[in-house]
Design a protein that fits this description.
By secondary structure, this protein is mostly helical. It contains 13 helices and no strands.
Length: 218
């Protein structure tokens, strides 16, 4: 998703707002909005200029996403580099609990994932993980990368759903095959008692059902 570009110079509006004595909160929100839009559209010159003027690299947009998470979600590589250089918190979470690495993984942004890992982004933590997100999206190269970095293959979401289960649920056969080959537990079940086989059967995915059974799924 690309946020709409502004049709007016909002920085001039901010200066005017302050000069006219408009509420500081409104003026500050205008600056935040400008910054988030610049990040989302990878306008790195604007991002750097605003950072140089004191904008917090960890600012959170109206959608609840920290600037770094927005950059990862939108694939704004240059803005992401600028934010990291300015000290953005690599594992900052959105109001939904997502980190930059999680949304990079969900959207198949391998190079951004690598940049985040270089800065120490966490692979595993309680709840949804980057690996589960990558499997959900069927992004096999990211799945391989995260596993190579040491991601826990059977890590579970808040209700215990694993990466293999999400691959099965979303009909991502190649991803499921990859995870099975790497040793994923084919009989892992979540809190509702569902497994990868359960979801493959619900989807009437006969090929995946057969593959899971050959791997020992029951």
């Amino acid at each position: 998703m690309t946020l709409p570009r502004l049709s007016i110079d909002r920085r001039r509006f901010l200066i005017l707002a302050v000069a006219l004595g408009l509420p500081a909160a409104a003026a500050a929100q205008t600056a935040v909005d400008d910054f988030v839009i610049a990040v989302a559209n990878d306008r790195v010159d604007t991002v750097r200029a605003m950072l140089a003027k004191g904008v917090d690299p960890n600012v959170v947009g109206k959608d609840g996403h920290p600037a770094l998470v927005t950059a990862a979600r939108e694939g704004s590589t240059n803005a992401l580099d600028a934010l990291l250089a300015a000290g953005a918190k690599v594992d900052a979470r959105s109001t939904f609990g997502d980190t930059a690495l999680m949304l990079a993984s969900l959207n198949g942004r391998l190079e951004i994932a690598k940049k985040l890992r270089t800065k120490g982004a966490a692979l595993d933590y309680p709840g949804w993980t980057p690996l589960i997100y990558a499997a959900t999206g069927g992004h096999d190269e990211l799945v391989k990368y995260l596993l190579g970095e040491g991601a826990k293959i059977n890590a579970g979401s808040p209700n215990g759903t694993s990466a293999l289960m999400m691959a099965a649920r979303e009909g991502k056969f190649a991803t499921a095959e990859l995870l099975i080959a790497r040793g994923a537990d084919v009989n892992h079940r979540n809190a509702d008692g569902a497994s990868a086989l359960t979801w493959a059967e619900r989807n009437d995915d006969k090929i995946l059902v057969e593959r899971l059974k050959r791997a020992g799924a029951k």
